[in-house]
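ok so for the tutorial part 2 we go from a plain amino acid sequence to predicted structure tokens. step 1 is just haveing the sequence, like this:
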Amino acid sequence: MFQKIRYQLLLSNLIVLTIILTAFAITVRITFAYSINQQLIDRLNTLARAAATGIDIEDGEVETDDDEVIAGQNQGVQWFDVEGELLAQQGEYPLTLPLDINQSLQKQTSPYPAQGLTTPVNDDASGKFVGYVRVSESLTEVQSITRRLDLGLGGGVLVALVLSGFGGIWLTRQAMQPIEENFQRLQQFTSDASHELRSPLMAIKTNAAVALKYSEGIRSKDVEKFQMIGSAANQMTWLTERLLILARTDKVTQPDWEPINLSSILSKLVLFYKPYALQKKIDFTSQIAGNLYLRGDKVLLIQLFTNLIKNAIYYTPSRGMVEITAKIAGSNLIIKVQDNGIGIAPEYLEKIFERFWRAEKSRSYKAKKFGLGLAIAQTIAQKHDGLITVNSQLGKGSCFTTRLPGLEKLKNQSIAGNREQTGNREYRNK
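step 2 — the prediction. this is what the tokens look like for a chain of 430 residues:
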């Protein structure tokens, strides 16, 4: 139980840390990309101002002075007239895109990645508009820096998660250790207290029973008091037995388990509880597949399905129906206990497997219940690497589904053995 809690706690911490580190990495990435892009635009603006001095009007014609090298490494400069016709260019990385005067920034991906900036140019002397200058710079270096940043951030996040995982394992172990120790002490106390309470409760029950058997010397008004004492003793005995089962169930270890024929267990339980169902005028049916094998504890499995069957009969009124079905689904055994009794309210479905919890409004009869039956059943199922789920509608009934891992190999062997026995019987008959 605590192993699962440790894993859930570790996983939750890693998920939160992953979200935080990812958000941090994205923020750094966006900030860095914005900064490097602004630096690129600043360089292009500086280059555009320098290139604007290379275009002017002489004798009414637009001329460019492209003899002076303006473009630097990884850059390109282009001059256009007022009609957008290319006049001249220099540098290794001019844009190959058509001039777009409505878009100051242009970006291309082929034949090489580059970003350009278009600026209108006016003649210095007359102030007359004479054309455009488009400057550009290769994005290869920027993309290379960004990739290295992405790899660095990704690697840093991964390393941080791995280190946090190891640290989280140690921290969760340290945090859960006192809880586990306290829980073990509580288990031991529950087991010891339940065991020690048996003797005085038995003495109370016996003395009350003897007093009621020989009631001639008892006043009539005291008979009812002894009956109440006997009833209370019976309830306390039932409670201590269930607490002892819970304490023992928590201590069960899997290495001691053995192959169990679940079909045989369920069939015997159906036969045992059918008279109780008939006495209550309940239609009690079953459909149990043969050769349902699993590895586990036979006593605990009997207790599990006893609780579910008794629960179904208890909460199903007269003229109702209780059905037990068991089958194989892949590698799992699916056992359903279905009834059309009073059902469970939707807001209580998540709580019915909690210890000492009872839905008084949706599942209450005159008899007193302690809310341990389903808790014991769920604990046993989880000990067998299984789970019990429930579907229910108030006033229409409930269906408790138990999923347990089966033993395919034993199942096949049993089928083969049954076929062999059938063949031997047929041979002897001949």
